[in-house]
Design brief:
Helices cover about 50% and strands about 5% of the residues. By secondary structure, it is mainly alpha-helical. The longest helix has 29 residues.
């Protein structure tokens, strides 16, 4: 059996190209242990007992599969941290018990029946407020003194010009049949959208107003076109710049291309290349890497979602699991020049792994209750110590997770080991803590007033760009040695056709 061609191909894939599951223990934590821990009600299995029983099982299984595979992968790291957050970490806020089975409330978006009446509703307690704009909440809408939107019932959701939905707040269900969808939805809600969690900074923006299916489809198509143009342009550039080719070793070899090496001048080339040759090479290459990462993520959140929305329109997929009821992957770009690095990572970039900061908040809550913590007074809400621990936790685990992109024994290496590749990727995320610390210190010393206004926006944007050209190249070495840029991510290239190189890129 071990010599079966399919098994050999899979082993080759997970060993040399992309890490993946190699043992049964990989699947037990997300498919059995974590759901089971949340399905058992707290009166039968209190939080401390549940965490003491299931967390060692979950982590033990994951450590075993990492040992067998020779390293971790992206998904298993997410499972490890997510299990801690749901079973232990929510106690760190210091408000109440912190058991997600007690604190959390699912905001169920229900569709109305005919005649404008309410459709089938659960037994959950309803909240108040008209939902806000896309990505907004009831807090952001215009209200009367009683907190209700003008002329609207307190449980109505406005989609387009129609009161198509209403929402209700569902606590931990009392019956197993109701708990199963509640728990499954929670396990998949990494951003905790449309969940009340007991954390004011999160609950203030919940629940979210859903798009209409038509509006979401239009949004997804436009986003896919934008992503295509970015990927097409950057792929065209990487194939014409030797910097993105695997570099000869040792580093002193004469053919090596550094990030500051001049942009290649190609006679009779595309005018785009001639224009780019006028810009600093480091800025161009850093921008290419960042733009490709952005486009790949947004591409995954656009076209693949349209069939799911279609299934929802046909009544074959629940509303809360349909992408048109979710917040967009990325926030407004204005967050970058209004908030600097903190705005980039906390407001604009995708928030899928925001829960990575929860262990830091949990630790701050523990320290706040100690004598030293009370004396320092920096671990409570708004405290600098609390914020620092959340940053270290968030970027620390993010770096570890992204290190899981490197296979145990990478192919096509130019003398670079897997360990060194992982450190370069992890280091990019870890160093962001330093940048945010510098940014926060300067703001404290100089004062917020200096940063306000249009001049402050320009200064923050230039600071983010400058920090990016210093740190983004850390990602280039591992991706380059893995030959990520050797192949085009798109089979058809508009830019290539306009440049006289033909449409087709594969083959």
């Amino acid at each position: 059996m071990s010599h079966h061609p399919l098994l050999q191909s899979y082993t080759h894939l997970t060993t040399h190209i992309v890490p993946g599951p190699r043992t049964l223990s990989y699947f037990l934590p997300p498919l059995l242990f974590l759901p089971l821990a949340l399905l058992i009600p707290p009166h039968l299995l209190p939080k401390t007992v549940s965490a003491s029983l299931f967390l060692p099982l979950i982590w033990g299984c994951l450590i075993h599969t990492w040992w067998v595979a020779g390293g971790w992968d992206v998904i298993s790291v997410n499972v490890a941290v997510w299990a801690f957050v749901l079973l232990v970490g929510w106690d760190g806020d210091g408000d109440g018990e912190g058991d997600v089975r007690v604190v959390f409330r699912r905001m169920r978006i229900q569709r109305r029946g005919r005649g404008g009446g309410e459709g089938k509703g659960g037994a959950g307690r309803r909240g108040g407020g008209v939902l806000g704009s896309r990505g907004g909440s009831a807090k952001n809408d215009k209200k009367n003194d009683d907190g209700k939107g003008e002329g609207e019932a307190e449980n109505e959701v406005i989609v387009g010009n129609h009161k198509e939905y209403y929402w209700e707040e569902e606590p931990y269900p009392s019956t197993l049949s109701q708990r199963i969808p509640w728990v499954l939805t929670l396990l998949l809600s990494l951003r905790l959208s449309n969940w009340k969690t007991g954390l004011p900074s999160h609950d203030l923006h919940q629940p979210l107003r859903p798009m209409t299916r038509t509006a979401f489809t239009r949004y997804a198509i436009l986003l896919a076109l934008q992503s295509y143009l970015i990927l097409d342009t950057t792929a065209y550039l990487t194939h014409r710049d030797p910097y993105f080719d695997p570099q000869p070793q040792p580093a002193s070899a004469t053919k090596i291309t550094h990030i500051d090496s001049p942009w290649p001048i190609i006679p009779h080339s595309n005018p785009l290349l001639a224009i780019l040759a006028l810009l600093p090479p480091r800025l161009i290459r850093s921008g290419i890497i960042a733009a490709q990462a952005y486009a790949l993520i947004t591409q995954g959140g656009s076209l693949p979602c349209i069939p799911v929305v279609l299934l929802n329109a046909l009544g074959l997929w629940p509303d809360e699991w349909s992408p048109h009821t979710w917040p967009p992957f990325f926030g407004p770009f204005a967050a970058v020049y209004q908030g600097g690095l903190r705005g980039l990572w906390g407001g604009w970039w995708h928030q899928t792994n925001r829960y990575f900061s929860v262990p830091g908040r949990w630790l701050a809550g523990r320290l706040e209750r100690t004598g030293m913590g009370r004396k320092l007074g920096c671990f409570g809400r708004g405290g600098m110590g609390r914020y620092a621990l959340m940053c270290v936790s968030g970027f620390g685990f993010s770096g570890i997770m992204h290190m899981g992109m490197i296979p145990p024994v990478p192919l096509n290496m130019a003398g670079t080991g897997a360990g060194e590749m992982r450190l370069w990727i992890g280091g990019f995320f870890w160093v962001q803590v330093l940048g945010i610390g510098v940014e926060t210190f300067v703001e404290k010393v100089v004062g917020r007033g200096w940063w306000r206004g249009r001049g402050g926006d320009v200064g923050r944007f230039l600071w983010v760009v400058g920090w990016g050209v210093c740190t983004v190249p850390m990602l280039a070495m591992p991706f380059r040695e893995l030959e990520y840029w050797r192949y085009s991510p798109l089979p058809v290239s508009l830019i290539g056709y306009l440049g006289g190189h033909g449409w087709w890129t594969w083959g």
